[in-house]
Amino acid sequence: MMTPGDRNLITDVAGLHVGNASDMTAKSGVTVVTADRPFTAAVHVMGGAPGTRETDALAADKLVQGVDALVLSGGSAFGLDAASGVMQGLRAMAVLPPRSICRTAPIPAAIWPRSSGSIRVTASSPARALRLPG
Known about the structure:
Layout: E1 16-23, E2 28-39, E3 51-53, E4 67-73, H1 82-92, E5 109-111
Parallel strand pairs: 4-5
Antiparallel strand pairs: 1-2, 2-4, 3-5
């Protein structure tokens, strides 16, 4: 039988870290899950118009053994760009090895649709700045 952790939260899992940030002007936010070492991840995509990035790499028949982060973002497809900010942040923190851009570990991301309101889109995506909250 499973026993809940101290707080019954995902952060009760040893070595797992969760951060989030929001931009009330852009009406968007991002949650990032990282761990002390690469971790196994899986996904089940549903719906007629899913917004995902690199989630296909998580399929059982693919070569990806682990990921360094998962990104969940609100808004639109612009929210998927938050994964770029996470990748840059992990590389700056020396979590990601200095590989070529083609061999960087995947940072899977997904967005969920808005129930109301609209995102304010500017020349540069505000989602990229919502990376790895300090």
